[in-house]
From TrEMBL:
GO terms for molecular function: ATP binding; ligase activity; metal ion binding. SUPFAM superfamilies: Glutathione synthetase ATP-binding domain-like. It comes from Hyphomonas atlantica. This is RimK family alpha-L-glutamate ligase. Residues 5-56 form the ATP-grasp domain. PROSITE patterns: ATP_GRASP. Pfam families: RimK.
């Protein structure tokens, strides 16, 4: 997901607002920056697996 995001950005294609977290503790800052809801994905999921729509912490 991180690699694909970089490719799409370089190609000038539209992508959803995206934040990549290094630590779980960064999640509050992401909610503040993006608003809610946010869609949380793991880097290794595919086809919608390991994904959750969160409206609050």
């Amino acid at each position: 997901k991180v690699f694909l995001k970089e490719i799409l950005e370089k190609a000038g294609l539209p992508i959803p607002r995206t934040e990549i977290l290094d630590e779980k503790s960064d999640l509050a800052a992401v909610f503040e920056k993006l608003g809610n809801p946010v869609v949380l994905k793991t880097p290794d999921g595919s086809f919608g697996t390991n994904m959750v729509k969160a409206r609050s912490l």
